[in-house]
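Project channel, design review

CF: Before we commit to the Drosophila melanogaster constructs, I'd like one complete example in the thread so the newer folks can see what an input/output pair looks like. Taking deoxyribose-phosphate aldolase.
RD: sounds good, go ahead.
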Amino acid sequence: MSSMDVKELEVNKTLPYDPSLLKVNISLRQVEEIALTVSQRCHVTGANEIAWALRALMLTDLTTLAGDDTAANVRRLCLRACYPFEPQFFDKFFDRALIPEMHTAAVCVYPARVKDAYLAIQQYDKLDKVAIAAVATGFPTGQYGLQTRLQEISHAILAGATEIDIVINRQLALVGDWEAMYNEVVLMRSACGQRAHLKTILAIGELGTMDNVYKAAMVCMMAGADFIKTSTGKETVNATLPVGLVMIFAIQEFKRRTCQIVGLKPAGGVKTVRDAIAWMTLVNETLGIRWLRPERFRFGASGLLDDIERVVRQGVKKLEEDEAQKNVPVSREAAAAETFCKELRKK
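CF: and here is what came back for deoxyribose-phosphate aldolase:
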């Protein structure tokens, strides 16, 4: 991969360790009530559901992290990421100009499979559209020596990764050694440099308390994380709305104190379009609609794309049936669908 172009990215900078950012007292009951209220407001149907499903598609890191991953199934994953729908599917109800934008935000694989992903996405001519993310630093446990974890980052970047999803050292969080955790993540930020965005996985299911989730998020953001991510997907508890809300509180406070913007990535447990809409509603009502773009928000998921495809195909089929029943000219239906798609493209 020596001939690969090295592209410098805009990444967050490391800020000095500031223990005052860790002061917090979270009411679990209040957080759960807010999350429940938001989740009850996120029901959409019809063309609106199609639009939200396609928005979720564009925000997804399509993931495979299995022990039996091979070059062949990584290639299949990349094909689905680059071309989730056949082009002619959009002919009747959607503007053809949208077709090049119908892809996932990234694929996410183990470092050993990054080269396979790079070659596949290069073959589909989508390297500038679909990012390649690699989990690293001893995923999912992080129970490896520091030098080994840092070398894994370098290996993944050399193979073609432009995003690195690292796992934090949960042991340091559980004993409250936040400065030591900060120092480790600073080294990981440095290993990524400007060649890769850094996503820090908090593994919220293993942190014990909501206060620890907030503090771990703050430490990672001070160290220069571009995203904070809920989970590896391998824990018993993964992405939940209350935890997401606590991480959003941290993002908001960090932005207020430092003017630095950090993205959010729920991962593990986001399996349906309804799940995705609940998360997007939460983000929209707290961080704002401008956060619902790949630079600031992602879903880490392996099965979500299946449900997105089901919802979109069934929705389009219903549009066709309604059109046939009402005998409405295609142009009017197409115009309505195009309006939704234009809304979808807005930043």
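RD: helpful, thanks. Residues 304-326 form the longest helix (23 residues).
CF: The chain is about 50% helix and 10% strand.
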